[in-house]
Amino acid sequence: MADEQILDGDNPEQAATAPEDLQGRVAQLEEQLAAAQDQALRMAADLQNVRRRAEQDVEKAHKFALEKFAGDLLAVVDSLERGLELSSAENEAIKPVREGMQLTLKLLTDTLKRYQVEQVDPLGEPFNPEHHQAMAMEESLHAEPGSVLKVFQKGYLLSGRLLRPAMVVVSKAPAVAQPSIDEQA
């Protein structure tokens, strides 16, 4: 301490600049502290975003893990439905087989529903390009233009996401008959 006082007394310029140097150094350290705090906040936010994205990815993986398996089961559902459509309910010889097919189809569709696989059967509904695939257009006097007239294959959703689009025929307005050249004369 005494040495410092002697130095200060010997060099008045050094004594005058020392508080300025200290103030500059304090300002510099405060800037560094603010930058470090800002960087720490950014890193914490980045870590929180990474954690949230990872949780969302895990949730999606759980939710849609059955996508391929459920898609493969849809061919079985289609085959059972087609078999029921093509067999006659009045034929006594195949009645037990039909009942077995109906029970199997019900069991399979109930199981799919438990795993959030929903059927899309849009017959009579307006065409929705997000859930339907138009296979053809057909003129119709009875149906609203743009509505589904026939369903070739039902569509399915898995947890609200499209698993397979419904293949449909869409109605269109009937063409207005153009008068022929003979009729105009």
TrEMBL record:
GO biological process: protein folding
Cellular component GO terms, alphabetical: cytosol
Keywords: Chaperone, Coiled coil, Cytoplasm, Stress response
Regions crossing the membrane: none
One of the Pfam families matching this protein, by short name: GrpE
GO molecular function list: adenyl-nucleotide exchange factor activity; protein homodimerization activity; protein-folding chaperone binding; unfolded protein binding
Subunit structure: Homodimer.
Function: Participates actively in the response to hyperosmotic and heat shock by preventing the aggregation of stress-denatured proteins, in association with DnaK and GrpE. It is the nucleotide exchange factor for DnaK and may function as a thermosensor. Unfolded proteins bind initially to DnaJ; upon interaction with the DnaJ-bound protein, DnaK hydrolyzes its bound ATP, resulting in the formation of a stable complex. GrpE releases ADP from DnaK; ATP binding to DnaK triggers the release of the substrate protein, thus completing the reaction cycle.
Protein name: Protein GrpE
Organism per entry: Pseudomonas fluvialis
